[in-house]
Amino acid sequence: MGERKRYPSDLTDEQWAVIGPFLDAWKARHPSVSGYQGRYELREIVNSIFYQNRTGCQWAYLPHDLPPKSATYYYFALWRDDGTDQTIHDLLRCQAREKAGRAEDPTAVVLDTQSIRAANHIPAATTGKDAAKRVPGRKRGLAVDALGLIIAVVVMAASATDNQIGARLLDRVVAHTPTVSKAWVDAGFKDDVAIHGALMGIDVEQVKRTDTRPGFVPIAKRWVVEQVNGTLMLHRRLAREYETREASSESRTWWAGTANLVRRLTGTTTPTWRHG
After folding, report:
1. Distances 273 to 84, 193, 234, 240 between C-alpha atoms, Å
2. Whether the predicted pLDDT of 55 surpasses 80
3. pTM of the predicted model, to two decimals?
4. 115, 158 Cβ separation under 8 angstroms
5. pLDDT digits (tens, 9 = 90+) for 190-220
6. What angle do CA 257, 131, 222 make, to 5 degrees?
7. Is the dihedral of CA 104, 106, 110, 112 positive or negative?
8. Span 125-132, mean pLDDT?
9. Where are the alpha helices (DSSP H) in the chain?
């Protein structure tokens, strides 16, 4: 890391010891043809991604003592496109589940969607308006396990129905975590999702709200995914839709999940931007 002053979002030595081996192995599998090893350490690249995720800053506003956009975006896009972002997250998730006394992979998930308002530069072709919530932008769908760890993420235009997102989430759950046989959803997910799940061997059950009190009321089975949505909002880059590509939004979610996992595995915390 050199002599620069650390940012709150930087990986500690203990946290890097958790994530570093995976990226070192990745680098060993992708040697430079020219033999050039790159100017920036992968730890600093991850620090740069974490910084932008937490602060929500534009690419041009990355601090001068972190790797610049040219280097940070190169790896961000490369890891997004080759699936390294999710692979690292999933390996750490397995460790977190084992640490909690669970099997590596879950047997049940909870699905939910969240509409995110888009910035004005986002292409209209990949955005829409949530008819129910009247939010113009995109919709993020999550599948999480009982510990609140992300199993699948899907980002689509906000005009997409919960059924469309639910079906795609189940597809990804089956592709990456075939041990899942149960999924809980809210009333926004209709019979189409249940049928889609049944065809893949997943029992989809609606958990409806029965409490008539106004405001937020935790609902059995479903509260954990709502808690995850709230935690993701601590990453300012996810509080609004800034990414031109939907795949980049999904990658941002994986990196936010990875930041949460390294803290969970090391028993550390990161100050939130809501402080002060």
Report:
1. 27, 37, 7, 15
2. yes
3. 0.90
4. yes
5. 899 999 999 999 999 998 766 555 554 445 5
6. 40
7. positive
8. 85
9. 13-29, 42-55, 69-82, 84-99, 162-176, 191-199, 223-232, 236-239, 246-266
Q: Which two tokens stand for residue 86?
A: 């999710």
Q: What is the pLDDT of residues 150-162, one digit of tens each?
A: 999 999 999 999 9
Contacts of 184 (CB under 8 A, 6+ apart): 108, 109, 110, 111, 204, 205, 206, 207, 221, 222
| Nearest of 244, 31, 240, 61 to residue 136 by alpha carbon | 240
- Evaluate whether 141 touches 165 at the Cβ level (below 8 Å): yes
Q: For residue range 23-34, what is the model confidence (pLDDT) as tens digits?
A: 999 999 988 765
pLDDT of residue 216: 45
- List the domains of the chain with CATH numbers: 105-245 (3.30.420.10)
Tokens of 158: 């906000």
- 3-class DSSP state for residue 150? strand
